[in-house]
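Box 3.1 A note on notation
Throughout this textbook, protein chains are presented in two layers. The first layer is the amino acid sequence; the second is a token string describing backbone geometry. Keep the layers aligned when reading.
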Amino acid sequence: MTQRSRLIGAVIVLLLMGAVLTGCSAPQAQTWPGLTVDGDTIYAISGTPREVYILDAETGDVKSTFIPAGAGDNKGALNDWSPVTVGGGLAYAGFFQDRSDSNGLYAFDPETGQQQWWVDTKSQILPAPTYVDGVVYFGSTDKKVYAVNAESGQPKPGWPFEAESAIWASPLVVDGRVYVASMDHNLYCLDAETGEEIWKTEVGGAMAKQPLLVDGILYAGAFDGRVHAIKADSGELVEGFDFQAENWVWSTPLLVEDQLFVTALDGSLYALEPDTGNVLAPYPYNSGEIDEGKDVIRANPVQVGDHIMVATEKGRVIAVKGGQRSCSWPSGTPDSPVYTTPVVSGDKVYVIQMNGKVHTLDATALETGACAGTELFSPPEDD
């Protein structure tokens, strides 16, 4: 790994620790929260995340919780979860506790929280696992990409695959291939059955999020501030595609009709021409126009009707249409950052703040300029 790569890694660690130390009155350290909505159930990793809260999506009532069998109270320890993935009748999430021997991927009953199995990785699993056809694929900070049987947790033959650095992005599994963005600047294409490398392509920066696949082209955001367009069949870079933001691209692009939407740490939402990467007017929209000073967008852009919604480090959730802000939430001063991508389900948008609170926004009201939110769940201050 190059000196520049090591420097970027050190900066990322500092960013993570900054998030961990936010609001450190809680008895345990906190990392970015996770939010998953599956039907009438929410899986929220909130507050001091020793547990996953299983919530009623309508009322916010706690149905159950999941705590790994080997997780101790360990006050002051760093606890970290990946977002939850649901598939094949089970829920899956990665758990890490820095004073525990129980780190790895866990499977649990999605309603009761009863543990079914776990895979010991001895490392952090930051991205959400990917469930496809009875197999769970997931990456870890130990540089490995795993593929395990969803019912038993047993590894598939030939797996895991080892990259050159940590995996922070969820694997993308399509048509028998697994596409993995890595912090080592490489995008890997693997055989979904055997784990063998088909191709890898190096780009100019680390990649922390899953790429987007559209019409045979992979669009991957990277810490060089670029979105890289790569041919899915061969790994070749698409000639003539060129886009450069003013800061890291820490998000998965979003395609809506003929526009490719991208967020960056410069606080901007860009709309690109998918073939060239040219920025389309009247974009970019800069989220810093609401509050004084620049803002940061780490979360993915999401489509809500004919709006694009973004969430910011200052705690704003903003609905944008035609390059202009339609509305933003909250109406007053935000009380916590929003690093996690909002989840759209039916006519609701679910938002989880850094403080662990879950809110709902009415997706049908955006056209009227209303981004009113209702608090759905607030985690206990002391578990």
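The CA atoms of residues 315 and 333 lie 8 Å apart. The chain has one helix and 32 strands.
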